[in-house]
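User: structure tokens for this one?
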Amino acid sequence: MSNPFENTEGIAKRTMVLFFIVDTSGSMAGKKIGAVNDAIFNVLPEIRKISEDNADAEIKIAAITFSNGAKWLYDEPKPADEFSWPYVNADGMTDLGEAYRMLNEKLSRNAFMNDVEGSYAPAIFLMTDGEPTDDYKKELDRLNQNKWFRVAIKVAVAIGEKD
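Assistant:
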């Protein structure tokens, strides 16, 4: 006999957007960027499983890389089962402020937080060796005013060891 509660098809799902903010500047070259690529590649199956196993929530993934400027890997968050991490290389400066500006712009109901069924607080993972070369503090101050950012789960991962 089948369990009628096992069929979750048609149940409205709220979205949780997971953001990867990844430093791809020259100081991340070699083992550091390799570690980041491997970590994201290896965690994606777990994220997909968590998303699949949740009847009332879906995880979508968005990613910014930053070096000389910053860029989104995709135009909008991708469902976890559709997100693909391209192995990235490291080169250039560390424009963390530009990454913060772009994140602030998309942490809005008019942008990435616009799911019809509603959105859970986002999760933001910053991966960097901590050597910004731009005026990141001004953009961080602006980001701290963003309501979605204030309620987000925020994790900063220091890559490498201090020289």
